[in-house]
Amino acid sequence: MLSHVFLGTTDFERALGFYQPLMQVLGYPLKFIERERPWAAWMPADAPRPLFIVGAPFEGEATPGNGQMLALQASSRAQVDRAYQAALASGGTCAGAPGLRPEYHAHYYGAYLRDPDGNKLCCVCHEPQ
Questions:
Q1: Is residue 10, in this structure, part of any structural domain at all?
Q2: Most exposed: 34, 43, 117, 122, by fewest CB within 10 Å?
Q3: By residue range, what is the domain housing residue 21?
């Protein structure tokens, strides 16, 4: 369904310092990084897409959207916990600690964060583990 998602940043190096450890914990390898543009992208370990891209907007200043959220899939609840800790250690802020959210479904285990630019993220596992 998705080819790629692009999140804008006001400080590329700060965003890179936030997303590199988070994506590493989630098992998403870096596809490319171009500091001169600046932008970087990660991809699933087993497919070329969808890409998750962070970089300077092509026009104007980056601002987080109200009501927008990017959910990154984790393979286990323990991976959600590790991703949450990595994100906090890299400059993210808590928007909802890791835990079950049965209002979504019985096995929904998620953690909510904001990146250093204020973009809302979720790390989520849908598996019963």
A1: yes
A2: 34
A3: 4-57+68-125
Query: If you write DSSP's letter for every residue of 32-97 in order, what string do you get?
Result: EEETTTTEEEE--TT-S-SEEEEE--SSS---PPTT--EEEE-SSHHHHHHHHHHHHHTT-EEEEE
Residues 6+ apart with CB under 8 A from 79: 25, 26, 27, 123, 125
- C-alpha count within 13 angstroms, C-beta hemisphere, residue 17: 11
Domain containing 9 — which CATH number?
3.10.180.10
Output the six-digit token pair for 95. Answer: 């928007």
pLDDT at 60: 84
The reported pTM is: 0.94
Structural domains of the chain, count = 1
What is the percent of the chain with per-residue pLDDT over 70, rounded to a whole number? 100
Domain assignment present for residue 62? The answer is no
